[in-house]
Structure prediction request, 529 residues.
Amino acid sequence: MIRFVDVRKEYDNGTKALRGISFQIDDGDFAFLVGPSGSGKSTIIKLITGEVAPSDGRVMVNGYNLTNIAPRQVPYMRRTLGVIFQDFRLIQKKTVYENLTFAMRAVGSSGREVRRRVPYVLDLVGLSQKGDRYPDELSGGEQQRVAIARALVNNPSMIIADEPTGNLDPQRSLEIMTLLERINELGTTVLVVTHEKELVNRFSKRVITIRDGRLISDETGGYYSNEQKI
Amino acid sequence: MSRRFDLKFYASEGLHSIFTHGFMSFAAVCMIVACLLIMGSFTLVAVNMDHMLGQLEDENEFLAYVDETLPEEDVLALEGKLAALPNVSQVTFTTKEEARENYIESYELDEDFEVFESLPDEVFRDRYAIHVADIEQMGETVELVKQVPGVADTSAMLEVAEGFVVVRNVAGGVAMILVAILLLISLFIIANTIKLATFSRREEIAIMKMVGATNAFIRWPFVFEGLILGVAGAVVGFFLQWGIYQMITAAITRAEGTGLIRLISFGDMALPVIGIFLLTGFIIGVGGSLVAIRKFLQV
Prediction:
């Protein structure tokens, strides 16, 4: 669960990224976070992952209060999240299987847990046959599936996807979004940050729209009405 | 999910990354080897100088000649008086007859042997050979001996004794300063080398942090990497040092046939050398990686 209560963020250089934002994403939700460049989307992601602290207000993520979290607790909070990026961020020197193993070993999983979990997750994203490939041998869509598998491998309660389809053609984008929808149906909370109006409109989901650091609209089942509101 | 210290995993990750970043690892080992060789060579030179000076110091004695007018029992009583003086470690009496024999013996193989053989006993004097405990106070001891009644004269090479002390102290001081400076420089170089290695792995570190790895977990493989590099450098350095030392020893022995310079054999020093090399390699390797990784663990 994510809860923002009147969150403000001003960076050291004086930029006011968020000017008082409140919203809540419950367990099992699927939500889009939309808004133009510089609207504060990235800041919201960074607040959720604990990379920056809020200047004012309260940020709660999966039971952790990030406003005054001890640095030692941050890694354990992050284990409840799976993060996906536009540029995939896979380790090029490691195979698909090794990329997933690496993420599991990083949180102290045993070899036995790895051998049980990795094939299951690879199957879930439809890459069972490609575990021994290197990222540069895969298409963009396949690489993003690997990134989704890596986000899922530690069994987080929530997936945060930061522009997951920004580097993909419309067909691949649709596939990725459908995969995220399926993961959500299996019980994982999903928050997708995106620009892509077409894509958002194809899924009848909750859409949180922000602009200039303020919440513009938060409509469940609504759509990304770019022209009217932004 | 979270588990305790997983030695096998950290060690294998560290070892694996040494080979993935082969060139950086090679560079780091070369730096450690170079630093150890420079340090080791200076130290071995200093140790050898100390050893040689120590040998000369061991033989350090001076002679006190006995007044010929003294009755024989007084001559023998002198031994107790001399031995009671401060800084005197050993007193040996030699009659003039014995002194002559010793003298002749030492020239036995000489061409002019007959000249020495015909020397009368009267040329020599009864003498006490006096060893001093501390060479640095030899001057004072000589003065004290001169004041003992019955001692006619002394023969001491004070300038030589003082020269030994000065050379040994200067060499020891210079070696210590050099070792301290080189230790600092090598730690700095290793830290930078490992910093470059961690820089090339910043992507992996970022991913580890993203999925929720603790700082300790991220740090351990680097510590093992530094440890393995340090120990590898120490072992390579040890064998190179051995080879260099043998070469230099052989060259000195060839060039200087008199046997005046007696170097310590490497075998006698092998254990302390490998011990110090391993310890230094350990400190620079682990210390360097801890310094290097520090800034990557913020956020």
Notes: The longest helix of chain B spans residues 158-199. Residues 45 and 175 of chain B are 9 Å apart (CA to CA).
